[in-house]
Amino acid sequence: MAQPRSDHHRGPIRKDLALIADMIESGTRVLDIGCGEGVLLDHLVHVKGVDGRGIELSQAGVNACVRQGLSVIQGDADTDLVDYPSLAFDYAVLSETLQATRAPDELLRQLVRIARHAIVSFTNFGHWRIRWNLFLGGRMPAIGEGEHWYDTPNIHLCTMLDFSELCDQLDLRVVRAVSVGNDGVSREIRRIGRAANLRGAKGIFLLTHN
How far apart are CA 120 and CA 96, in angstroms? Predict the structure, then answer.
């Protein structure tokens, strides 16, 4: 297992990724699902000393991770998590990937099956800026990869209220919830109501079974 060390040679990671890293205990077993080019996974392995693994759909992302010495395989979150044994990890991380999956409810079930805790982050489509732009311009936002609504990977858009309701339906407990504004300011969410839904551009949820 990699040992924690100073990351003075590494640049800072995005605020939302740093918040996810803060939710993860050092020395634990972590699976980063949809890990992209490995920015978060690299930080977790080399700064927090976790036993980190990754799964990524794109071959380019897998190649980028392997070049950094990260243990990442190519796979599809929608279909391949069933092959992992139950409680194989302490944390399963799904960062900015939920909205691109075919069955978010089943994916959440798999996350809390294979790990004691799941950490899920996503763009909150209930944020006031998205509502305002839709109201004024009448056009869907192009968020994530792609320049238009039709070429982004997003197929299941949700708000923080939607996600909270899904957690209730799946009998999942929200251990911690944080919203991140467009200005990078984070806020602890004590109650996931309309006010939190309006303010947060992104939501980050730490989940476990009830």
Answer: 8
DSSP label at residue 88: -
- Interior CA angle at 154 toward 152 and 158, to 5°? 145
Alpha helices by DSSP H, listed for 68-143, are 77-80, 104-114, 128-137
Q: In sequence order, what E strands does 34-131 have?
A: 51-56, 72-74, 89-95, 115-123
Q: Please report where in the chains the tokens 């605020």 appear, as a residue.
A: 15
pTM > 0.70: yes
* Residue pLDDT, tens place only, 105-120: 999 999 999 999 999 9
Correct CATH for 15-209 of 1.20.1440.230, 3.40.50.150, 3.40.190.10, 3.40.50.2000: 3.40.50.150
pLDDT in tens, 118-135: 999 999 988 888 888 877
Q: How do the domains of the chain map onto residue ranges?
A: 15-209
User: Using 50, 70 and 90 to split pLDDT, how confident is the model at 198?
Assistant: confident
State whether residue 137 is helix, strand or coil.
helix
